[in-house]
Amino acid sequence: MALQDARPVGIDLGTTFSAIAYLGPNGQPRTIVSATGKETTPSVVLIRPDRSVIVGEDALAERSNTPDLVAVNFKRDMGERFYREPVGGRQFSPEALSALVLKKLARDARAVLSDVTGAVITVPAYFGDAKRKATQDAGKIAGLNVLDIINEPTAAALANAFRQYLAYGGDRTRLEIARIATRAPSTTLIFDLGGGTFDVTIIRIDSNDFEVVATGGEVRLGGVDFDQRILNYFCDEFHRRHGVDPRDTPESKEKIRARCEQAKIVLSDEMQTTISGEHLGRQLTYPITRARFDSITADLLARAQLSTEMLLEDALLTWDKIDDVLLVGGSSRMPCVAQMLEKISGKQPDMAIAPDQIVAHGAAIHAAILQMADSAAVVAADQSRRLESPAAPQEAYAQREEERMQAIFDEPVRQAAMSVKMTDVNSHALGVIVRSSREKRTVNSVIIPKNTPLPASRIKVFGTEAKNQRQVRIRVVEGDSRDPRGCTQIGECMIKSLPKGLPKGAPVEVSFKYDKSGRIHVRAVELSSRLSADVELHREYGFEQADVEKLADAVAEIDVE
Amino acid sequence: MSNKPNANPAQPAPDLSPDTDLYAELLQIPPGPRPPHLYQLLGIELFCPHPEEIERAVRAQFRKIKPYEEHPDIKVRERIQDVMSHIATARTVLRDPEQKQRYDEVLATRLKVNRDEMLLSRPAARIPEFALTVIAGPARVGARWSLVPDRRFTIGSDPHCVLPLPSSRLRGVHAQLECAGSDWMLRNADPGFVTLVNDERRREFLLKEGDHIDLGGYRLHFERIGAGQPDPKSLPAPLSLVIREGPSIPEPVMNAVGPASILIGNCETALWQLLDPRLSLHHARVSASGAVWQIEDLKSTTGTFVNGERITRELLHHRDQISIGHFQIQVRLRR
Description:
Strand content of chain A: 25-35%
Low-confidence stretches of chain B: 1-11
Oligomer: heterodimer
Mean pLDDT of chain B: 86
Shape of chain A: globular
Distance between the termini of chain A: 22 Å
């Protein structure tokens, strides 16, 4: 099969499964199937003693045979120094493990596209700064040109709306798209329960204008928690009957866990199923009904429900203001999810077409939009320059790029894509730890509250605490809690070498900025001396640029099967 | 300046460890058996019969524990999640009459109390007549609390207040409401802080239906439960005013639902206090006019601008840009 033109891709780097997609010429996102013909790839890495690496289906199949060589669910450890346990006796960072998955996905893409010019990678809206930075680094380590990091629910909304434009478009003339684009504004609640994370997001769509109103969720709630409940249910019974517990050996545990996950999937369609497992020569086959499954996982669902209803409260909304409820994420296939949402919202939730691919589709659309905007901007800049100087080589390049885009995408698709505007919000408040003289304790003073439209920047002026103070330390935290223990420290700013003889209360201006992709930048300047002190935001476990490059070289040499 | 960079960190509270009693440390539940029973967990009276009170307590407790869910210690994190599950379960059980009945019976046996006798010997639970609704403020707008008689309601920035409202302009316990017969008495807790009732500064006030209370940038509406709600179509869409540029102020967002009105000015009694010498004390007012929002300049010195034009009175639309002093404020309307 002839290769498609080079273009950027969208990647949903999931806790349990990942997917990669690109935007086809007619505006239809296409999932790239793996070498084994699957639309999603398990986010599982097997590292053999000879350091060869296997990613995906085959690695997952090996999990129960050699659990200590296989890494799973490392997305949950993003932002930490190491994956929670050693793999083959060695410690790996979640970035490096994720990079191996990304590398495998990119390789699958190169079997379809002549080249991958860039990638948009998605993260849960509820990810904080450290986890976003880690995801970006994982992309770089995998050798990808990371165009942007966007939120999974935003990507899902984009894919959903884009599909509607094109579906309504019929012959997809410009006129049709314009008609669809002027529909009345609507508000959608996106309930995204994935393998390991849970996001709930409210998006207002007005023509082609996507505005995230508020976002919430739980960063560690997903399908794997439901699997764990079945596992415990089964193993408790095993222990009761046989006096031994399969959870004591990783081999038995992982084998049974795979069957529990299978049982969960079967229970989405059937009212009951059975699970069987072996351990130390004993065997048990035990039935589980859907009602039993619902009751042993009821508290997990109740947590998701509470987060959803409290998000509405935070967003000043009630259910009658929500037009659509969209279900995303593989775990949303559990019937209890749709039932719960229908009960509390009074609306029939819509299951996204391909709930486990829609996020990658949205990322692919966003990637194409970025590239089109980029080439359009270069062309525009060159056209204005043309008045001043004769054609430069740069211009020829830009023209070619523009023509290439026109060749790849149909005109209506380009029109629709170029008109899309997206506004996201931050999911965590940003603040600094200060001493409150009124409360007589240290507190988190919130500078940018959560659910603020991005990009957002704030400047706050602090006073030095003592006369002749030579340095100021500012601890920057993420979190809404006034108690610093409820916040995640994301960096410390030190302004050193302040001039001598500053009075008490000398003004220090600190500027805080959230950029469009939710990343944070902090700078501080001492004002009275007019000396600016450069401040770097250190992340406790984050990589420095040099580490990223070193790891990227190492990963480049690894052959991922 | 009361807030200073933490150059010399003061005694921080001990960090959470897997052995910390999270129920006591984070939810202020008195010592006793762990896990606590559901009424202890929610900090409400045993066998509490009021669904609104249960819902209020569930949300308050969940808000207290949720910020800790990303604690760096995985063991602490797992225990935090267990407590979150516990609170969510309490809600499922206590809000379902049948499940609550069964739970209450089992609990009564366990505690060796006679539930029916307890409920009978208590003065008949009075049905709440009034509620407080947040109609404007930096957060929590739309939240509504039924005022259950015979208990005291504290309002303040401390999350352990019965009605907690996040704001640095609020005292930990800023004001309290006490039931007096069938009426409610509002008391300001600290003379150094301002509480207004119907735009007038008050130390104590006997509330009547329709009064509004301003404290720390919030406006609360005192209303009778079940009184005819205005037709939602006659009210304007919920409004958010978001500062996009300007000096840093503690509360850069102001939200409101009809029929609130927001006084903006460089003054302690202004609902939205914008600290900027270019602002007049009473600079402008945003208020509902029928089903739309409008802004009115209060004869300010430096003027009020909407989308670049100086105005005296102007209707507001989604994404309009208001300029006041050094502030650029974006209007956002929820349909």
